[in-house]
Amino acid sequence: LLLKLGPGTVYTLNLGQAGSWAGSLCMLLRACSRGLTTMASAELPSSVSPALEFQVLAQQGRARTATMKLPHYTAETPMFMPVGTQGTVKGLTSEQMQELDCHVILGNTYHLGNRPGPELVAAMGGLHCFINWPRGMLTDSGGFQMVSLLHLADITEEGVTFQSPVDGSRMLLTPEESIGIQNDLGADIMMQLDDVVPATNTDLARFEEATHRTTRWLDRCLAANKRPNEQNLFPIVQ
Fold it and tell me: How many alpha carbons fall within 13 Å on the CB side of residue 130?
């Protein structure tokens, strides 16, 4: 696949080998970022907190490139973040993911909370040790399952009650429970539990309800976080 980004600038993505497209996309994103206008560092946004150092390196219009220093790795943005639902990217080993220069892998809180369970992952040293991954990890909140498993979910102000697609058992996922699971998993970045509405929904009142509820749930997530100096909690904008 040939991509022309400007006069005399053509990049090739090799899609012929398993996994090669991911590494090519990572390299393409970073190559694009090198073309952005560099400003004086004092003019560029930055942020420092116990578990995160964020520094914008260059920007042009609304596009920007930055570094994000996480507890386990310094990631470059923009980046391609592969999904490892139960901690693994299907068909690729952790070593292969490093060879492809992936900086952050995403894990799914709902599925990892069901199997193998946060207690087991914590006992093994957290998700990084569990999957032998030395770089960045992000865990979602489990909220997306409100869409993907909508027929198995009941949503209230307290949280979301799921019926397990595996054995039919019921599980109440509250903002506090979501953060508790993610604290045990130990990812560099945790996502707040949000009220997710399918994009096909035409009820504007439902979107307004979800927006305000997500804000209230963020307050509960912040209060429940037991590792604020070791893990980052990212909010979600509806």
Answer: 24
pTM score: 0.81
Span between the terminal Cα atoms of the chain, in Å? 34
Non-local (6+) Cβ contacts of 127 within 8 A are 87, 107, 112, 121, 133, 137, 139, 185, 186, 187
- The three-class DSSP label of residue 15 is coil
Q: What is the pLDDT of residues 168-190, one digit of tens each?
A: 777 888 999 999 999 999 999 99
Annotate 182-228 with DSSP letters as a single string.
HHHHT-SEEE-------TT---HHHHHHHHHHHHHHHHHHHHH-S-T
Q: Name the band, by pLDDT with cuts 50, 70 and 90, for residue 202.
A: very high
Q: Can you read off the two tokens belonging to residue 146?
A: 């409100």
Contact 135, 72 (CB under 8 A): yes
DSSP structure class, residue 60: E
Q: Could you give the CA distance from residue 65 to residue 56 in angstroms, rounded to a whole number? A: 6
